[in-house]
Each structure stands twice: as structure tokens, then as C-alpha cells.
Amino acid sequence: MRTSERTIHRAVRKIVPSLVALVALVAAGPPAAADSIATTEAFLPAVHVVGASGVFRTDVEVYNPDPERSAEVLFYLTPPDADYTELPGIRLDPPLRPLEAVTLPDIVLEFFQFDDAFGSLNVLSRDVADTTKEGPALIITSNTYNVAGALAGTYGQFSPGQPYRKAIGFDDTVYGDLHIIGLRNDPTFRTNVGIMNTENVPLEVGVQLRDSVGQPYGTRIYTVAPYSIRQINDVFEKEFASAGAPRDRGPYRLLVFVNLKNDAKVLCYASVTDLRTGDPYLITGEPVAP
């Protein structure tokens, strides 16, 4: 289990290097409304990478909509394809007050001090008096964008913090699938997929490509380390290129499911980029509500 965290002092925007013990986290209390991203635990991608057209970075927004309770907010960033179960996190200091919002600019570099890296960002809300209990539900979003390119300004992609309650485990019914819809099998668009493991055990996940009438065009199996993220690059032109999916059978979709019966759970998303303009957009993998 993740055992320690560093502190973000928001007044000076620096990380204090001292470590403090983090007790075991247990779920408690009712979930937020199903039609809201407000949650006590969220997952989203975060980056600070150098690309051909500049530096891509992620700013994170956290808002506490509770009118009475403060939130102890903890952040963990797990790089891809590695087990970082014991990775220290960071926390806001002071706690996020009722109705307060905060922006964490370039969180990967400025707060985690990772340069040229990306990963799965896990954000937790805990009770200020007792961190073994959940805090108020928070609204968490991010913007990943390009800076220092040929032209001034930003150009980026919004991402919601996906609530932990949307993660699915092994289930061979329709309730064991996440659906990424609206994908274009078009060489002018590049589709990358992120697979996030929300648990402290290895994840074996299946990804199946289907056309507009549900015809499957192959299934790929991947492994993802505990709390980590796996990126699948260029779904149509590389990963499923041998599947023979016709250009005119779209919109395509991906079916994502846990392939091994253990305690692993999965969240996912697709990042689609128009190669003519560089414009990206994000599609979250959605479960079927029981």
C-alpha cells in the first residue's frame, strides 16, 4: 500500500521534502450522484513531455463543493508499466476549505519533479480529522496542452477525473465492460488508448475492436502493473492494423474488460488527434449502469 506523502504548501507552490506516515485508506460513506464526476477518489492522465511542437504539460483543477467540510487532498502519480505501490505522494497544505478551488500548474514537473514523463494521477479526498475516512466529494479536472511551440498560446485536451466507482472488475456480463465509442478508422486521425489499473494487484485486460454493428475485429490482451497505466499507441494504423477493419464500417468502438479473475479493476480512455491540425480530444471509457 502507498505509505507516505509529501506536502504541497499552496502559498509558496513548493514541495516540502519531509515524509509523513499515511494510514490505510478505507472506503466509507455514500457515493456521489451517478451523473456527476464529483468523487472522493479520481484517476486521470498527467504529463510533462517534450514533443516535436513544444512542451506538453498538465494543469490540474481541484474544487471542493461541500459548503461545510474541508478535504485532506492527496495526490499519487504512477509512471507507466511499473509497480509503484510504495510510491510516495504529495498533499495539499492547508486542506482544501469548503467551496475552495485550487489550480496545480504543470503538476508532473512542478510538484512531482518528473521531467519528460507521464503517468496515472490518483487524487484522494480524506477527512481532515481522520484520514482513514473519506472526505467530501471533489470535482477534479485537468488540461493537457502545448506550450513553447512556434506560436504563442496553448493548444490542448481537457480530461475529467474519472471516479473510482466507474472502475470495473472481472465480470463476464455486460456490466463487466467499458465502452470507448465514436472512433474513426481514418489515417488522418491517430487514436491512442490509456488503460489505468486502479488497484494494488496486476491487471490483465482485454481490448476488443468492434465496428458500428458490433462485428469484432480482434482482441488484444495487455498487462498493467499495480496503480499504473499502459498506453496503446495508434490503434488503427499499428495495434489493430492486421485485423482488416474497413475504413467505411465506423464509427468504431473499443470494448475494454478485465480478463483475469482477481481483485484488479480498470478505467480507460482514448486520446484522438487530428494529424492535420494537431487538435486532440479525449473519450472516456464508460460502463453500462446496472
The global form is: globular
Total strand segments: 20
Largest sheet: 11 strands, mixed
- What is the percentage of strand-forming residues? over 45%
Helix content: under 10%
Q: If you average the pLDDT, what whole number results?
A: 86
Count up the helices. 2
Summed up, the domain count is: 2
Give the termini distance in whole angstroms: 30 Å
Structural class, from secondary structure content?
mainly beta
* Uncertain residue ranges: 9-32
Question: What's the assembly state of these chains?
Answer: single chain
Report Rg. Answer: 19 Å
| Element pattern in H and E | EEEEEEEHEEEEEEEEEHEEEE
Give a structural overview.
The protein has about 290 residues and is mainly beta. About 5% of the residues lie in helices and about 50% in strands. It folds into two domains: about 5-165, no CATH class; about 165-285, Hypothetical Protein Tm1070, Chain: A (Sandwich), CATH 2.60.290. The protein is built from two helices and 20 strands. The strands form three sheets. Strands 1, 2, 3, 4, 5, 6, 7, 8, 9, 10 and 11 form an eleven-stranded mixed sheet that branches. The radius of gyration is 19 Å and the shape is globular. The model is unreliable at about 10-30 (pLDDT under 50).
